[in-house]
Each structure stands twice: as C-alpha cells, then as structure tokens.
Amino acid sequence: MGCDIVESDGSRCSRVIDDGGPLNLCAAHLAVAHDWVEREVGATDVLPSPCMACGSRIGLRFPSGWLCAECEWRVGDIPDPDTPLIRVDVVYYLRFRDRVKIGTTANPRSRIAAILHEEVLAFERGDRRIERRRHAEFSKHRIPRSEWFYAHDALTTHLTELRAGIDDPWAQYERWLSREIGLRG
Predict the structure, then answer these.
(1) Element (H, E) at 99
(2) Domain membership of residue 49 as a residue range
C-alpha cells in the first residue's frame, strides 16, 4: 500500500507506508506531520526547571520556547513583583497517630511544616468559615481546646470523599494555585 499524500505536481507519493502505522503515510510524511503538530500543539515534557509561577515540573515545548502545562506561564518570564500574591485558602487535614487536625491557611507549606504530624490526609478549598463548619460537624470527637479530633467514622468518610481521585493532596493544591494564576492572566 502506498502513501496517501498527493505531491505538489499532482502525483501520488511513491513511498510505501509502514505496516501498523496510524495513518496511510510514509515515514517521511509522518515526520512532517509530527513536526507540524509539535509546532502547533507543542510536546509535553519535563520543564528545564520548576515553573516560577506555580512550581509545576511539566511543560509544553514549542520551537519558540516553553509553557508551563499547569498555569501556562512562559518559562523564562520573571513574575512581576507588583503582581499581588496568589492566595488559595485551604482547610487542611493532618494525621498524628489516631488524631486528625483540621485547620486553615493560605500558605499550607509553611503552616504544615510548623505542626507535628505524620501525614497530610487531604485539602479542601475554603477559609475559616469552612473550618468552623468542619469543627462543628465533628465536635463530638474534638479534643478540648484544640483543633485536633479523634478519628471516627464520619470524619473518615469525609476524608475519603475529599481524597476521591486524588493521589497527592499537594498536587491538588498546586492545581488550585495554577488555576488562580491562569484566571489572573
């Protein structure tokens, strides 16, 4: 079987196509199509360094340069120091032994680093209102005068719902940051 490309002079390409190829194109014309797609759509790859806007390591490589795959920040551009900081409030859930801390922050990396814990269980988008709602919801199991709760069925069910489809809470938080950056243009 021959290549489906019609040359500029009207003749059909005389090269043979490879068995099992995705299209009826010879290797030379598949390479041309690949180069065109890579130029127009980009190629997903690991960024040369983490994105300065969101920290992602995955990018799109174009002949003209790199874009972050998460927030579309152009690699090499320096964030404007006058741009307001991106803020994403989260309710965090930490485990230490058989207890779970429910807190809130706009800077989870530094806040969680300051708290003794064994595992970050989940993040939930929200501010103090959501945190207070969760404290009230699980109040029967609250350790007095603290934000710590004994693990129990209702809390475990809530955490399971928050984690559904989420392998890494930190990656989820990074996506939320990226979306906020993208919304600001």
Answers:
(1) strand 99-105
(2) 42-80
